[in-house]
Amino acid sequence: MAEIKPFRGVHYNREVTGDISSVICPPYDIISPDMDKQLHNRNAYNFIRIEYNRLQADDSEENNRYTRSAALFQQWLEQKVMITDEEPAIYVHDQFFHLEGDEYKRRSLIVRVRLEDWDKNIIRPHENTFKGPKKDRINLLWALNANTSSVMSMYEDKDLKVTSFLKKMDIGKLLISTNEIDGERHNVWTITEPKAVKEFCDYFNDKPLYIADGHHRYESALIYKKERSTCDEVENHDAPYNFVMMTLMDMDDPNLIIFPTHRLLHGLEPDVINNLDGKLALYFDIEHLSLDDSDVWQKVDSIIEDEANMKLTIIGLKQGAVSILTLKDLNTAVAMMPAERSDVYKKMDVSVVDHVILEKILGIQSDDEKRIAYTHERKEAVNRALNGDCQLAIIMNMVKGQTIKDIADVKDRMPRKSTYFYPKLPSGLIVNHLV
Q: Which pTM value belongs to this model?
């Protein structure tokens, strides 16, 4: 199914930039204004200058964030700030990160993957995209002719062939090793031996790939491919623009962390809040646990782990308490959802929240960002509800890779703001120059 290839990656030259941890940056879509300032001050060669160049008041067709990124990228290549590997490689990426005091290592593989339209069902999405982000990435692609950020994707390795391959390999040459910064560090190895590369690529001949994070980047690359192909007099099936840089991960890797996205509600009328308990009781059994109990969250987690019935958690329904909602009848909830949606979609807790609680009971659209804010951190969601920053915090349950696979396999999409993959892949670690 999926066609993957090695490629000659572009990466920073440590002899020029110093430690690589100071020059890589997060992907463009999570860079806040404060983070932007911090990254610009961190190192004169920080990749944010390529990934997400700043807007300027006098921007024009000839001089704008994209043309500045392109000029800087070319300059850094010429000055050997960034260098291109001599041999095509499969890049093995070990990303070390911290979570609740423990260090984890997530191993992934950076490759080129042939771009395929969704209807071929070879590359499978699980969420919808929006025009704005795609336009931005397409403009950057045209300016740089390069993938600056990798599309995070998952594969299934039930027979452990990929795992076994990596274990028996001597991994290869250590290309990059960073110090820790912002709680993360990275090692990148290369596999270049032609026989080993072919053996590895062949494992994916019968595997689909599931996009985890980077749907906008993938669709932008698809559009770029189609636009670029019209410029060629002769069709070139293997032209670099027919491929996109992907980072592949085993969906059963226990260190593949998928946070849910919690809903924070505000702007609700007082009578709506006052009557909410009774309206929820029509569809849910409600249990209140005191937040004064030292082990309240252990109790909550224990209750939620029982998957016999769908359970949700709310802060703000009762003062000083965390409320556990157990769905009484799934069929009643399903009747409130769009009929064309798949059974997988209708059994998701986020679907019940969006269609039953938000739309049916509260009368607000699930995409109403004037009254709904989001966070993937449970502690933040709870604190914001207790501090009065929001009226209600709906705590979502952890999402499994299998759920993403299931909904992608039936060609459906998850509700928006369903998942948050942690940690994000860095930009600038490896760049795919489409030449």
A: 0.92
Whole-angstrom Cα distance, residue 353 to residue 327?
11
Contacts 24+ apart (CB under 8 A), 162-166: 162/109, 162/200, 162/203, 162/250, 163/250, 165/199, 165/200, 165/203, 166/92, 166/107
Q: Is the pLDDT of residue 51 over 70?
A: yes
12 and 25 co-located in one domain: yes
Run of H or E residues at 143:
helix 131-144
Question: Which residue has tokens 């915090």?
Answer: 393
> What is the band of 170 on the pLDDT scale with cuts at 50, 70, 90?
low
Q: Give the Cα-Cα-Cα angle 45, 47, 49 (nearest 5 degrees).
A: 85
184-196 pLDDT, tens digit per residue, is: 999 999 999 999 9
| Spatial contact of 365 and 354, defined as CB atoms under 8 Å apart | no
Residue 406 included in any domain? no
Q: Per-residue pLDDT for 82 more than 80?
A: yes
Q: Are residues 251 and 266 in the same domain?
A: no
Would you say residue 413 lies in a domain? no
199 membership: H or E segment, kind and range: helix 194-202
- Residue ranges of the alpha helices (H) in 255-348? 270-274, 276-280, 296-305, 330-334, 343-346
Rounded distance, CA 327 to CA 320, Å?
A: 22
Q: Are residues 348 and 375 in the same domain?
A: yes
Asked if 267 and 172 count as a contact pair (C-beta separation under 8 A), the reply is: no
Give the number of domains in the chain. Answer: 2
Range with the lowest mean pLDDT among 103-112, 123-132, 280-289, 293-302? Answer: 123-132
The mean pLDDT value for 94-98 works out to 96
Is 252 in the same domain as 267? no
Q: How far apart are CA 325 and CA 240, in angstroms?
A: 51
Reply yes or no on whether the pLDDT at 434 is more than 80. Answer: yes
Residues 222 and 266 in one domain: no
**What does the pLDDT look like over 331-350, one tens digit per residue?**
999 999 999 999 999 999 99
Instruction: Output the CA–CA distances (angstroms, integers) from residue 24 to 204, 250, 325, in the order listed.
Output: 29, 24, 43
Domain that holds residue 388: 262-395
Question: Same structural domain for residues 40 and 160?
Answer: yes
> Does residue 414 lie within any of the structural domains?
no
Residues 279 and 211 in one domain: no
User: Which residues neighbour 179 within 8 Å (Cβ) at sequence distance 6 or greater?
Assistant: 19, 21, 185
In the prediction, which pLDDT does 332 show? 97
* Residue 346 within a domain: yes
Beta bridge partners of 259: 420
